[in-house]
Structure formats: structure tokens, C-alpha cells
Recover the amino acids of this structure.
């Protein structure tokens, strides 16, 4: 009789790391799919190429709910699938041109932000609502810095123009999304299903 091969789990600070369990990989794929599902809902603004979307809501939740490794993995999967040509970016965009275009920094920032949020929350034994809010504020700042920074590089716009058109118009909406994401992440414990 053939011996059944098992994959040994590796745990880092209470979280199973990628490749050691199939359930977290499925959740990472589901969060990538959820990000793609909300991407078509965009509100374009005439003065900036950056639309209002729900993608950042899912980015924030992925880091908080899946942890740093699987949260980042879900966003990497999302960006790779879009870069390969599936229309999963805001408004049905896709391709490497979207990743390297003016708003591509926002896409790249997603997995960095998800990782940072997950890592910050991982350092807390029993995170409270304000811990979630704090971690997501840091994640949102990462999204702004990388997204707007890349926009400056690609478009040649100055700091004032980037802040006025690419950051400030989104602060109120992103604050609402951040609070909603913190509430959901605090109250829905999917990590128990990932074990």
C-alpha cells in the first residue's frame, strides 16, 4: 500500500504560511475573486484618471481577515490575473499596460498594504476595533503613497497636482470604506475556517 504524502504545516506567530494548507489558499483565491467582482463598480471623476472603486475595501479586509501572507497572496493573484489579460481591474481593465499605466501603482500597492495590515494585526494578541482601524489607516497610506507616487513618475505631475487630484478627493470615501472594512474584519472571524 502506498504511503499517503502529507504536507507539514509551518506556523509563524500563530499563522499558517502559504503552501502548507489548502484552505487558506482557497480563501486567498476567493478574496482575489471578490476584488475582481467589485472592480466593475467604478465612478470615474473627470479631473483624474483615478476612479472611485470598492477594490480598496476588499484589500483592507484581505490583510485583516487572511493575515499578512494570504492577504498579500490574494492581492498578488488578483494583479497577476489582471496583468495576464482577464478584465478584473476597475471598469473591466486588464493587461500589463494597466499595471504599468498611470494608476498601476495603486494595483501594486494592494499586496503591500494587505501584508502590512495583516502584520500589524498579527502583533496584537486580541486586536480591538481601533487596532483594525489603525492597521487599515497604515494600509490606506501605503496605497496612497505607492499609487500617487507611481502616478507622479508616469505622468510627470508635481506633488501638489497629485495630492489635489489623486489623493484628497478620495479621503472621505476611503475613510468610510476603512471603517466598514474594520467593522467587518473585527466581527467576521474566517481564520477559524482556514485551519
Amino acid at each position: 500500500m502506498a504511503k499517503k504524502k502529507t504536507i507539514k504545516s509551518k506556523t509563524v506567530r500563530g499563522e499558517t504560511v502559504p503552501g502548507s494548507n489548502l484552505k487558506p489558499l482557497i480563501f486567498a483565491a476567493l478574496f482575489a475573486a471578490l476584488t475582481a467582482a467589485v472592480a466593475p463598480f467604478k465612478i470615474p471623476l473627470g479631473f483624474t484618471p483615478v476612479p472611485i472603486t470598492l477594490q480598496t475595501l476588499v484589500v483592507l479586509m484581505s490583510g485583516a481577515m487572511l493575515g499578512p501572507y494570504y492577504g498579500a497572496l490574494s492581492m498578488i493573484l488578483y494583479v497577476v490575473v489582471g496583468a495576464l489579460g482577464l478584465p478584473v481591474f476597475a471598469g473591466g481593465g486588464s493587461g500589463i499596460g494597466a499595471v504599468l499605466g498611470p494608476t498601476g501603482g495603486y494595483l501594486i500597492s494592494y499586496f503591500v498594504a494587505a501584508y502590512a495590515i495583516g502584520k500589524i494585526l498579527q502583533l496584537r494578541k486580541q486586536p480591538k476595533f481601533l487596532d483594525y482601524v489603525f492597521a487599515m489607516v497604515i494600509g490606506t497610506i501605503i496605497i496612497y503613497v505607492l499609487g500617487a507616487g507611481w502616478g507622479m513618475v508616469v505622468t510627470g505631475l508635481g506633488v501638489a497636482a497629485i495630492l489635489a487630484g489623486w489623493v484628497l478627493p478620495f479621503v472621505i470615501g476611503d475613510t468610510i470604506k476603512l471603517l466598514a472594512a474594520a467593522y467587518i474584519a473585527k466581527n467576521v472571524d474566517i481564520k477559524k475556517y482556514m485551519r
